[in-house]
Amino acid sequence: MIRKARIDDAKKIKTLIEGFAKQNLMLIRPLSDIYECIRDFCVLEIDGKICGCGALHIFWEDIAEIRSLCVNSEYQRKGLGKEIVNFLIEEARQLKLKKVFALTYQVVFFKSIGFEIVDKSHLPQKIWSECVKCPKFPDCDEVAMIRKI
Ligand SMILES: CC(C)(COP(=O)(O)OP(=O)(O)OC[C@H]1O[C@@H](n2cnc3c(N)ncnc32)[C@H](O)[C@@H]1OP(=O)(O)O)[C@@H](O)C(=O)NCCC(=O)NCCS
């Protein structure tokens, strides 16, 4: 089941992301940040356990980022990552957003769900205000991918 996150999911989301951050696949999210952005998050719950998550973060009038996306390794390649993204895209659609983007290493995955690679310069300038706070700045090797809604 994919549902909007609740405040009592925050610590589990942090632990899930941390596992992938240690493998350098994702950026770590401090608990304070997750609490602050809890309304961005949805979670994948299986048998009462949080096995995946994703977040939709609005940047501007027409665009939002899909971030903090992951599925527990045990449940990968079962179409669940795609379902999380579709859940977030549906939310974006209801908010009347026009496009979503991701900064990612998972190019094959995002291509399989209709995202296209774009030059980072096509993303709104506002994202740089967050990028400068990132440990990878200024040597970000993630690929920018975008999908129209
Ligand atoms: C990226 C991630 C969320 C994908 O979740 P998932 O549930 O495994 O993905 P899905 O099963 O929905 O995959 C949908 C399609 O994407 C493609 N795909 C997904 N993972 C892939 C991989 N590792 N290699 C090649 N293709 C892949 C396939 O075409 C797949 O369809 P198929 O299994 O029918 O061939 C998951 O691999 C993950 O949590 N990775 C670690 C964290 C991470 O990198 N997050 C991304 C941050 S932006």
From TrEMBL:
| One MF annotation (Gene Ontology) recorded for this entry | L-glutamate N-acetyltransferase activity
Pfam families associated with the record? Acetyltransf_1
Record's keyword terms, sorted = Acyltransferase, Transferase
Q: Name one GO cellular component term.
A: cytoplasm
Query: Do the record's keywords include DNA-binding?
Result: no
Q: Name one GO biological process term.
A: L-arginine biosynthetic process
Protein name listed in UniProt = GCN5-related N-acetyltransferase
Gene source species: Thermodesulfobium narugense DSM 14796
